[in-house]
Amino acid sequence: QVQLVESGGGLVQPGGSLRLSCAASGISFSSYKMGWYRQCPGKQRELVADMTSGGSTNYADSVKDRFTISRDNAKKTVYLQMNSLKPEDTAVYYCNAKLRYPLRDYWGQGTQVTVSS
Fold first, then answer.
1. Beta carbons of 96 and 106 less than 8 angstroms apart
2. 58-113 per-position pLDDT tens digit
3. pLDDT tens digits, residue range 21-36?
4. Which of 60, 71, 78, 94 shows the greatest Cβ crowding within 10 Å of its Cβ?
5. What count of Cα atoms within 13 Å lies in the side-chain half-sphere of residue 104?
6. Do the Cβ atoms of 93 and 67 come closer than 8 Å?
7. Which sign does the torsion angle of CA 93, 45, 109, 75 carry?
8. Long-range contacts: 54-62, Cβ < 8 Å, 24+?
9. CA distances from 92 to 73, 113, 114 (A)
10. Pairwise CA distance, residues 28 & 13, whole Å
11. Cβ contacts of residue 117 below 8 Å, gap of 6+?
């Protein structure tokens, strides 16, 4: 059974930092592209950042230079370090695992991040 379990969300003041974690089980973690997405109420889910199995990264323009994605294949965990948080970063953040061949696409349950004073 595949599980992606996010943790680390919460309430933080503008300018603050949070570190999200996503622990995976039931997949060959090192083979997967791992990503973080977010969704605000009434809006579509959007990519925040992802990292290929080879370590290449991709970031949304809105988070470049503030957020950093990393992964620990031995721990089967992907992280999202979020610095200089802004109120517009408020959303539910979802962990995603993708494999191209065979096609696989898994999601976590989401963790709430609220940036507010």
1. yes
2. 999 999 999 999 999 999 999 999 999 999 999 999 999 999 999 999 999 999 99
3. 999 999 999 999 999 9
4. 78
5. 17
6. no
7. negative
8. 62/88
9. 24, 6, 8
10. 37
11. 13, 14
Give the number of other Cβ atoms within 10 Å of residue 100's Cβ: 11
Which residue's entry shows tokens 């503030």? 66
- The DSSP call for residue 53 is T
Q: How far is CA 76 from the centre of its chain?
A: 14
CA–CA separation, 92 vs 111, rounded Å?
5
* Token pair of 37 as six digits: 């997405």
Contact 69, 79 (CB under 8 A): yes
CB burial class (10 A; 0-12, 13-18, 19+) of residue 98?
middle
Each residue of 65-93: b (16+ CB within 10 Å) or e? eebebebebeebbbbbebeebeeebbbbb
**Residue 117 identity (one-letter amino acid):** S
